[in-house]
Amino acid sequence: MRVLNVNSTLGLKTGGGTAERTFQMSLFLANQGVKCTVLTLDIGLDKQRISDLEPATVFATLCFWKRHYVPWVKWKHIRRLVEDVDIIHIMGHWGLLNALVYMAARLASKPYVVCPAGALPIFGRSQIIKRVYNCIIGYSIIRNASGWIAVTSAEFPHFESYGIPASQVTVLPNGISEEDFPQVDVETYKRSKGLTGKSIILFMGRLNPIKGPDLLLQAFTKVHKLFPEFHLVFAGPDEGMRSGLVEISEQNNIGDYVHFFGYVSGVDKSAAYRMADLLVVPSRQEAMSIVALEAAVCGTPVMLTDQCGFSEVKSICPDFEVAADISGIANGIISLLKQPEKLKHNSALLQDLVIQRYTWSSIVHLYIELYTNILASAKKTAFRL
Fold first, then answer.
1. Distances (CA, A) of 320 to 5, 23, 209, 337
2. In what order do the strands lie in the sheet with 321-322?
3. Residue of 170, 203, 78, 186 lying closest to 374 (CA atoms)
4. Residues ≥6 apart with Cβ < 8 Å to 324
């Protein structure tokens, strides 16, 4: 089987959750013997990231306009990539790269699946451009697909708004690889950050409004006096919010308790998770939090908002999921930190759940099964014609 995975971003720093999902999916497919190629833009992509994806291969095209992910690529290259595979997986929704691959797939009569990963609703910036995009080609990309993948069932209404019944959508959740989060010397890491002996609340992700770091900081200002031994750590690349967060912390006289690590990866990322007494995912909107899975597999307690697409955590502890506002986050932190032994016990249960259900070693087989069924159906249709 030959698969082309398409995602505008694959870089560690700039790509976010969909980049990591594409990376892991491609790697595990390739390790299962699937000939896998990834088409992406060169934004934030380096040789090490490409090397780490072997035996999958990467075709990275230049990005002409980063603001809107406009590629600089020859049409013949898109056609060749599409014609050389059996099936195509298109990640996300908004972007010229997706549109070009869609047109090439239709011309070549190649089946493709779409995985918007929560991107279908028109949200955030450039809403007028998104509406125009949908009118011109976006709706067609979704409606003419051979398969539809949701990260969680919460995306069903998104697909239905594009005319795709929920019954036709396959749920394939985000996953993680345990091997990416080894045991590390946590105390040495904390010492290197000047946090020896400190208790830690951790935010891991881009400093972007959709991720809600401001909500967490405002909540922390409300709980700080109750838990003065706790420090708040923001780990992730700045996308324009850091200066504002610093200003808020200084205005509330908690500047010494708020720390910014910047982007972390590899062993440092594992150390950051493992040093935390609680990871908080305060997102305003998210398909399914990969950060929550990563922290959980490290045995770190996790609290997230009800916009993170991982409501299964409530089956372990109702307080693991809270409203996506300052009060909800603050009350959740208070409830969890007041019962440290219970928190430790529940985090172990969450770790078991993630290992059993959300590792790529098991999820990859669901992709192969879906692709096999689509290709078999396409052959039957061609035979009838």
1. 34, 28, 21, 11
2. 258-262, 230-235, 199-204, 278-281, 302-305, 321-322
3. 170
4. 212, 215, 282, 283, 284, 305, 306, 307
Contacts of residues 246-253 at CB distance under 8 Å and 24 or more positions apart, as own/partner, are 248/214, 248/217, 248/218, 248/221, 249/217, 249/221, 252/221, 252/224
Query: Checking phi first, is residue 70 left (phi over 0); if not, alpha (psi -120 to 50) or beta?
Result: beta
User: Under a CB-based contact definition with an 8 Å cutoff, are residues 258 and 193 in contact?
Assistant: no
Domains of the chain: 2-175+360-384 (3.40.50.2000), 178-357 (3.40.50.2000)
pLDDT score recorded for residue 14: 66
Cα-to-chain-centroid distance, residue 150 = 13
Structure tokens at 112: 């493709």
> Nearest Cα to 50, choosing from 38, 58, 41?
58
Q: In the structure encoding, which two tokens stand for residue 38, read together?
A: 């990834």
Question: Six-digit token pair at 23?
Answer: 């990376």
> Taking the alpha carbons of 48, 150, 300, 15 in that order, is the dihedral positive or negative?
positive
Which contiguous run of DSSP H or E holds residue 378? helix 360-384
Tell me the pTM. Answer: 0.81
| Amino acid, res. 234 | F
Integer CA distances (angstroms), 294 to 80, 95, 162, 266, 273, in order: 36, 28, 32, 12, 8
**pLDDT for 287:** 81
- Which pairing describes strands 87-91 and 112-115: parallel, antiparallel, or unpaired? parallel
- Residue 30's contacts (CB-CB under 8 Å, 6 or more residues apart) are 36, 53, 54, 55, 56
Mean pLDDT value across residues 201-226: 96
43: confidence class by pLDDT, cuts 50, 70, 90: confident
Cα–Cα distance list, 21 to 10, 151, 163, 262, 364 (Å): 9, 10, 25, 22, 11
